[in-house]
Amino acid sequence: MQLTDPIADMLTRIRNGIQARHDSVLVPASQLKLQIARILKEEGFVKDFELVKDAPHRTIRIWLRYVGQREPVVTGLKRVSKPGLRVYAKSREMPRVLNGLGIAIVSTPRGVMTAARARQENLGGEVLCFVW
């Protein structure tokens, strides 16, 4: 099955897994999705991720992170740039999510990174998603 927006599919799988209080979710793998999962781990939104190679297709297993009485760390995920409407931002215009409580993930010429890091390195790019 061909997906129109694989990143939105990844975010939806994470959102549904959190809502169902699953420990982990499986996502079809790609280099871009691996970079997004790496950023989510670095920023503390997920416990860990791994590339599962024994499945028929390469998949990423993402372990979701909870605190206290199974309260999810991720409270919201939003896809910003979509296939039908791409959203780009210059380094000075990088978005801030909830006044710094969340992160924006951006695809730049030097790779996928948070908007804060892109702002520091004076890079612009495509705003992929918001996570808070």
Give a verbal description of the structure.
The protein is 24% helix and 33% strand. With 132 residues, it is α+β, with helices and mostly antiparallel strands. Strands 6, 7, 8, 9 and 10 form a five-stranded antiparallel beta sheet that branches. Strands 1-3-2 form a three-stranded antiparallel beta sheet, covered by helices on one side. It has a two-stranded antiparallel ribbon with strand order 4-5. The longest helix is centred in the first third of the chain and has 14 residues, at 6-19. The protein starts with 5 loop residues before the first helix and ends with a strand. The relative contact order is 0.18.
Write the layout of secondary structure elements.
Layout: H1 6-19, E1 24-28, H2 31-42, E2 46-52, E3 59-64, E4 66-67, E5 71-72, E6 77-79, E7 88-89, E8 103-108, E9 111-114, H3 115-120, E10 125-131
